[in-house]
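Exercise 7 asks you to align residues with tokens for two separate proteins.
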Amino acid sequence: MGNYRDRKIHQIDPATGAIKRTIESNRFVTGVDLGGREMWHGTWEAEESEIRHIDPEVAPCSSGCRMPKGMGVSGLESDGADLFYAGGGGAGKVRAVRRPKRSPS
């Protein structure tokens, strides 16, 4: 679950609703998705947006896709394969964004 203003992503225990773990972001969190069994999150702040891959064992943001200036990400869902669907904020559009290829570790 994303906490927009606090710039945090929480893992929630579905049985109790308690926060089990928190990952900090350096940007506002606008969406969180577990597409393809990997965690990704959207950011949007100061007219800049990204879709970021999160490896909580390595670093909060290990790779990602920077959106063109002025193109906001206001929500994030995955098709479970190669596409993300991201809300476009005030544009009133939903965009399809190809999942970035991650470089091998």
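Second protein for Exercise 7:
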Amino acid sequence: MYGRSEGVLGDLVADTHIRGEVFLATKVWTRGKAEGTAQMERSLTLLKTDMIDLMQVHNLVDWRTHVGTLRDWKAQGRIRYIGITHYTASAYDELEAVLRSETVDFVQVNYSVHEREAEHRILPLAAERGVAVLVNRPFGGGNLLRRLAHRDLPPIAHDLGCTSWAQLLLKFVIGHPAVTSVIPATANPRHMAGNVHAGLEALPDQALREQIAALTGGS
């Protein structure tokens, strides 16, 4: 699913000797205990580590089987945390049921100024259950950034230390008290550095977050 990313990352971490400074996360996305175990073993090999910080069940694929395996791996010290993910709001009924019935450490969902469905059920439940939240698609897949690209940044952006729309959109997401981390995708090192900057300085409270949503056309 992610091409050569595990192998590339494993080589980079090993060559630079920074394993103690990075948080390694990957996913299992196949069916069956044997197939899932084989896929996770391959991830360990490619990442050149004997312990992965976070293993997530991708899109809830055969989650009952894999969560059982992950519990065993966690007890053995082969993973630190268990996670579940889904990328569509239509799966939130099942995602909510898993969060209520299982002990997991992380949940990953879409969340942005234009995709706020997670606010209604998943984020409050994660906070209640003490589950960390990873957010993907904070830019709505990039369409939102393209639409905003030719607009001037509003004064609120400068007040929050933002120098780009991307940083302001990330501030909106990170500012939610239930959100632990955001994972914006980019192949541009300059964009990556800018994204990191969004996690620094002030974060918006709920009132400021609503202003950001209104300024960007979110609901």
